[in-house]
Amino acid sequence: MRVLVVEGEKDQSELLIDGLRRHGHDAIAVGSGAEALNIFENVDLVLLDLGLSDIDGIEVCRRIRAAGDTPIISFAEKAAELDRILGLQAGADDCLERPYSFRELIARIDAVMRRFGGQRRPLLSRGGLSLDSESRKVGLYGRAIELTRKEFDLLHYLASRPGVVVSRQRLMIDLWGHPAGAGLSAQASRTIDTHVSSIRSKLRESGWILTVRGVGFRFCQD
């Protein structure tokens, strides 16, 4: 299941991502409401910190709910009872009071997803390209594309963010588990370039993944 963690505290975000991945989830993190609103449509569940610094978390919750039925579990401090109530009224399916245990979070996730019938939207379609996150199958205009596990993860990650420039460092952190505070080595950069080159070769065209010189890559479906 693809989970979006919207958390303003970096340390807390990293703990959540690590725990969710250990439980078999495809977890990604953003630190602002603006980033969350750009990509939430491509995930199965949103874990939302109501205390964001750029856009009020309750407003983020309201906008996500207005756009569709993506499940939302929000977080609020123990003293912020009003925020918890407003979050639920804005469309959150559940709200956890901080501090909470990770076991409780997993139990809440399971309960919310049962109400939604389990995992949602496993198929991601971009133009003639389709990626099924459950079977990990890729098709391009009806032609099956054989990708390695890491190639699939990389292509799915970029395709989930069409038009967004993703840095090499962000890819190493989210897909290869590279430490967030560490610099990007030449070897790590070559690793990403090699995977991108292989994906382009298998898709038989380079236009799906564009290189942004000196920064990273952008998925283009036009």
UniProtKB/TrEMBL annotation:
- Give the InterPro entries listed for this entry: CheY-like_superfamily, OmpR/PhoB-type_DNA-bd, Sig_transdc_resp-reg_receiver, WalR-like, WH-like_DNA-bd_sf
Q: What GO biological process terms are annotated to this protein in UniProt?
A: regulation of DNA-templated transcription
Entry-linked Pfam families = Response_reg (PF00072), Trans_reg_C (PF00486)
The Response regulatory domain sits at: 2-113
What are the record's GO terms for cellular component?
A: cytosol; protein-DNA complex
Give the molecular function GO annotations.
phosphorelay response regulator activity; transcription cis-regulatory region binding
Stored SUPFAM superfamilies: CheY-like
At what positions is 4-aspartylphosphate found?
Answer: 49
User: Which residues fall under the DNA-binding region feature?
Assistant: 121-221
Q: Which domain of life is it from?
A: Bacteria
Keyword annotations for this protein, in alphabetical order, are:
DNA-binding, Phosphoprotein, Transcription, Transcription regulation, Two-component regulatory system
SMART domains of this UniProt entry?
Answer: REC, Trans_reg_C
Q: Which residues form the OmpR/PhoB-type domain?
A: 121-221
Q: What name goes with this protein?
A: Transcriptional regulator
